[in-house]
Design a protein that fits this description.
The complex is a heterodimer. By secondary structure, chain A is an all-beta fold. Chain A is built from no helices and 11 strands. In chain A, the strands form 2 sheets. In chain A, strands 2, 4, 5, 6, 9, 10 and 11 form a 7-stranded mixed beta sheet that branches. In chain A, strands 1-3-8-7 form a 4-stranded antiparallel beta sheet, with no helix packed on it. In chain A, strand 5 and strand 6 form a beta hairpin. Chain B is mostly beta strands. Helices cover 0% and strands 55% of the residues of chain B. Chain B is built from no helices and 11 strands. In chain B, strand 9 and strand 10 form a beta hairpin. The N and C termini of chain B lie far apart (37 Å). The chains are: A mainly beta, B mainly beta. At the A-B interface, strand 4, strand 5, strand 9 and strand 10 of A face strand 10 of B.
Protein backbone atom coordinates (compact mmCIF):
# COMPACT_ATOMS: atom_id res chain seq x y z
CA UNK A 1 0.00 0.00 0.00
CA UNK A 2 0.87 3.63 -0.29
CA UNK A 3 3.12 4.94 2.44
CA UNK A 4 3.90 8.41 3.65
CA UNK A 5 7.06 8.81 5.67
CA UNK A 6 7.71 11.69 8.02
CA UNK A 7 11.01 12.64 9.59
CA UNK A 8 12.04 13.21 12.31
CA UNK A 9 9.60 11.50 14.63
CA UNK A 10 10.73 13.53 17.62
CA UNK A 11 12.71 16.72 17.94
CA UNK A 12 13.65 18.94 20.85
CA UNK A 13 14.97 22.37 20.01
CA UNK A 14 15.87 25.55 21.78
CA UNK A 15 13.59 28.54 21.65
CA UNK A 16 14.50 30.80 18.74
CA UNK A 17 15.90 28.09 16.49
CA UNK A 18 14.31 26.60 13.37
CA UNK A 19 13.24 23.04 12.76
CA UNK A 20 12.60 21.32 9.43
CA UNK A 21 10.17 18.42 9.11
CA UNK A 22 10.10 16.27 6.00
CA UNK A 23 7.15 14.44 4.51
CA UNK A 24 7.75 11.94 1.72
CA UNK A 25 5.40 9.86 -0.34
CA UNK A 26 7.35 6.64 -0.81
CA UNK A 27 5.56 4.84 -3.61
CA UNK A 28 3.39 7.42 -5.29
CA UNK A 29 3.53 10.98 -6.52
CA UNK A 30 1.65 13.53 -4.47
CA UNK A 31 0.94 16.87 -6.12
CA UNK A 32 -0.82 17.91 -2.94
CA UNK A 33 0.09 17.23 0.64
CA UNK A 34 -1.52 18.53 3.79
CA UNK A 35 0.04 19.64 7.06
CA UNK A 36 -1.82 19.31 10.32
CA UNK A 37 -1.04 20.23 13.91
CA UNK A 38 -2.45 18.39 16.87
CA UNK A 39 -2.24 19.61 20.45
CA UNK A 40 -2.64 17.07 23.28
CA UNK A 41 -6.10 15.55 23.42
CA UNK A 42 -7.30 17.74 20.59
CA UNK A 43 -8.22 17.24 16.98
CA UNK A 44 -5.99 17.51 13.94
CA UNK A 45 -6.14 21.07 12.74
CA UNK A 46 -5.26 21.80 9.15
CA UNK A 47 -2.41 24.27 8.87
CA UNK A 48 -1.78 24.42 5.16
CA UNK A 49 -2.10 22.73 1.82
CA UNK A 50 1.21 22.11 0.13
CA UNK A 51 1.14 22.26 -3.67
CA UNK A 52 3.98 20.94 -5.79
CA UNK A 53 5.61 23.71 -7.76
CA UNK A 54 3.53 26.52 -6.30
CA UNK A 55 2.93 28.37 -3.08
CA UNK A 56 1.26 26.67 -0.18
CA UNK A 57 -2.23 27.66 0.86
CA UNK A 58 -2.42 28.52 4.56
CA UNK A 59 -5.43 28.29 6.80
CA UNK A 60 -6.67 31.35 8.58
CA UNK A 61 -4.57 32.15 11.62
CA UNK A 62 -1.50 30.23 10.48
CA UNK A 63 1.51 32.48 9.95
CA UNK A 64 3.04 31.75 6.58
CA UNK A 65 6.32 33.42 7.52
CA UNK A 66 6.65 31.28 10.59
CA UNK A 67 5.65 27.96 9.07
CA UNK A 68 7.50 27.74 5.79
CA UNK A 69 6.33 25.05 3.40
CA UNK A 70 8.27 23.88 0.39
CA UNK A 71 6.98 21.26 -2.03
CA UNK A 72 9.89 21.06 -4.42
CA UNK A 73 9.15 17.62 -5.86
CA UNK A 74 6.22 15.27 -6.33
CA UNK A 75 7.36 13.13 -3.41
CA UNK A 76 8.62 15.62 -0.84
CA UNK A 77 7.11 18.45 1.16
CA UNK A 78 8.90 20.16 4.01
CA UNK A 79 7.60 22.23 6.89
CA UNK A 80 10.05 24.55 8.61
CA UNK A 81 9.08 26.02 11.94
CA UNK A 82 11.10 29.21 12.14
CA UNK A 83 12.08 30.94 15.36
CA UNK A 84 10.32 28.28 17.35
CA UNK A 85 8.76 29.12 20.70
CA UNK A 86 7.46 26.84 23.46
CA UNK A 87 3.87 27.43 22.30
CA UNK A 88 4.83 25.82 18.96
CA UNK A 89 5.37 22.54 20.78
CA UNK A 90 2.91 20.13 19.24
CA UNK A 91 2.43 17.02 17.12
CA UNK A 92 2.85 17.89 13.45
CA UNK A 93 1.55 15.44 10.90
CA UNK A 94 1.35 15.39 7.13
CA UNK A 95 -0.94 13.50 4.80
CA UNK A 96 -1.28 12.78 1.11
CA UNK A 97 -3.80 11.06 -1.10
CA UNK A 98 -2.71 8.65 -3.79
CA UNK A 99 -5.85 8.98 -5.87
CA UNK A 100 -8.98 11.06 -5.63
CA UNK A 101 -11.76 9.63 -3.51
CA UNK A 102 -9.41 7.37 -1.61
CA UNK A 103 -7.99 7.36 1.87
CA UNK A 104 -5.55 9.97 3.10
CA UNK A 105 -2.25 8.41 4.12
CA UNK A 106 -0.68 9.98 7.15
CA UNK A 107 2.95 10.25 8.07
CA UNK A 108 4.05 8.98 11.46
CA UNK A 109 3.96 12.50 12.86
CA UNK A 110 6.65 14.65 14.45
CA UNK A 111 6.56 15.46 18.13
CA UNK A 112 8.14 18.91 18.46
CA UNK A 113 9.20 20.17 21.86
CA UNK A 114 10.60 23.68 22.13
CA UNK A 115 12.48 24.40 25.34
CA UNK B 1 -16.44 23.91 8.98
CA UNK B 2 -15.29 21.51 11.67
CA UNK B 3 -17.72 18.62 11.92
CA UNK B 4 -19.31 17.89 15.25
CA UNK B 5 -18.75 14.50 16.80
CA UNK B 6 -20.72 12.86 19.54
CA UNK B 7 -20.34 11.50 22.08
CA UNK B 8 -17.08 12.96 23.39
CA UNK B 9 -16.13 9.79 25.18
CA UNK B 10 -17.39 6.27 25.59
CA UNK B 11 -16.41 3.47 27.93
CA UNK B 12 -17.45 -0.01 26.92
CA UNK B 13 -17.02 -3.50 28.20
CA UNK B 14 -15.57 -5.96 25.76
CA UNK B 15 -18.32 -7.27 23.50
CA UNK B 16 -20.58 -4.22 23.77
CA UNK B 17 -21.61 -2.02 20.86
CA UNK B 18 -21.11 1.69 20.27
CA UNK B 19 -22.19 4.33 17.79
CA UNK B 20 -20.22 7.47 17.04
CA UNK B 21 -21.88 10.28 15.15
CA UNK B 22 -20.48 12.99 12.93
CA UNK B 23 -22.49 15.90 11.59
CA UNK B 24 -21.72 18.87 9.42
CA UNK B 25 -23.39 22.20 8.86
CA UNK B 26 -22.19 22.22 5.26
CA UNK B 27 -22.84 19.88 2.35
CA UNK B 28 -20.29 17.10 2.20
CA UNK B 29 -18.55 15.31 -0.61
CA UNK B 30 -17.19 12.51 1.55
CA UNK B 31 -16.66 11.37 5.10
CA UNK B 32 -13.55 9.56 6.31
CA UNK B 33 -13.21 7.69 9.59
CA UNK B 34 -9.90 7.22 11.39
CA UNK B 35 -8.78 5.72 14.68
CA UNK B 36 -5.79 7.15 16.51
CA UNK B 37 -3.88 5.58 19.37
CA UNK B 38 -1.99 7.84 21.74
CA UNK B 39 1.18 9.25 20.17
CA UNK B 40 0.56 7.58 16.83
CA UNK B 41 -0.68 8.67 13.44
CA UNK B 42 -4.35 8.17 12.58
CA UNK B 43 -5.21 4.87 10.96
CA UNK B 44 -7.73 4.77 8.14
CA UNK B 45 -10.94 2.86 8.76
CA UNK B 46 -13.18 3.72 5.83
CA UNK B 47 -14.37 6.38 3.44
CA UNK B 48 -17.96 7.03 2.42
CA UNK B 49 -18.67 8.90 -0.76
CA UNK B 50 -22.31 8.71 -1.71
CA UNK B 51 -25.46 9.71 0.06
CA UNK B 52 -26.88 6.76 1.88
CA UNK B 53 -23.75 4.74 1.39
CA UNK B 54 -22.91 2.12 3.97
CA UNK B 55 -19.69 0.26 4.37
CA UNK B 56 -18.19 -2.15 6.77
CA UNK B 57 -15.46 -4.63 7.45
CA UNK B 58 -15.17 -7.04 10.28
CA UNK B 59 -17.33 -5.61 13.05
CA UNK B 60 -16.93 -1.94 12.17
CA UNK B 61 -19.33 -0.31 9.75
CA UNK B 62 -20.48 3.18 8.85
CA UNK B 63 -23.26 5.01 7.10
CA UNK B 64 -23.42 8.37 5.36
CA UNK B 65 -26.65 10.28 4.99
CA UNK B 66 -25.82 12.95 2.47
CA UNK B 67 -29.11 14.81 2.88
CA UNK B 68 -28.74 15.06 6.62
CA UNK B 69 -25.03 15.71 6.29
CA UNK B 70 -24.39 13.07 8.89
CA UNK B 71 -22.33 9.96 9.24
CA UNK B 72 -22.31 7.30 11.91
CA UNK B 73 -19.67 4.73 12.80
CA UNK B 74 -20.92 1.46 14.27
CA UNK B 75 -18.69 -0.70 16.43
CA UNK B 76 -20.20 -4.05 17.28
CA UNK B 77 -18.96 -6.67 19.71
CA UNK B 78 -16.12 -4.34 20.66
CA UNK B 79 -12.64 -5.67 21.25
CA UNK B 80 -9.91 -4.29 23.48
CA UNK B 81 -8.01 -3.24 20.36
CA UNK B 82 -10.82 -0.86 19.45
CA UNK B 83 -9.71 1.53 22.18
CA UNK B 84 -8.48 4.85 20.87
CA UNK B 85 -9.76 8.16 19.63
CA UNK B 86 -12.03 8.10 16.62
CA UNK B 87 -12.06 11.03 14.25
CA UNK B 88 -14.33 11.75 11.37
CA UNK B 89 -12.82 13.81 8.58
CA UNK B 90 -15.10 15.59 6.17
CA UNK B 91 -14.33 16.68 2.65
CA UNK B 92 -16.30 19.48 1.00
CA UNK B 93 -15.08 18.71 -2.49
CA UNK B 94 -12.93 16.03 -4.05
CA UNK B 95 -9.24 16.61 -3.44
CA UNK B 96 -9.72 19.07 -0.63
CA UNK B 97 -8.16 18.72 2.79
CA UNK B 98 -10.03 16.88 5.49
CA UNK B 99 -11.60 18.81 8.33
CA UNK B 100 -11.56 16.69 11.44
CA UNK B 101 -14.00 16.59 14.30
CA UNK B 102 -12.78 16.88 17.88
CA UNK B 103 -12.71 13.15 18.24
CA UNK B 104 -14.47 10.54 20.34
CA UNK B 105 -12.40 8.78 22.93
CA UNK B 106 -13.32 5.11 23.17
CA UNK B 107 -12.12 2.85 25.94
CA UNK B 108 -12.91 -0.84 25.89
CA UNK B 109 -12.38 -2.61 29.18
CA UNK B 110 -12.14 -6.34 29.88
Amino acid sequence: GAVVSQHPSRVICKSGTSVKIECRSLDFQATTMFWYRQFPKQSLMLMATSNEGSKATYEQGVEKDKFLINHASLTLSTLTVTSAHPEDSSFYICSATKLKNTEAFFGQGTRLTVV
Amino acid sequence: QQPVQSPQAVILREGEDAVINCSSSKALYSVHWYRQKHGEAPVFLMILLKGGEQKGHDKISASFNEKKQQSSLYLTASQLSYSGTYFCGTEMNSGYALNFGKGTSLLVTP
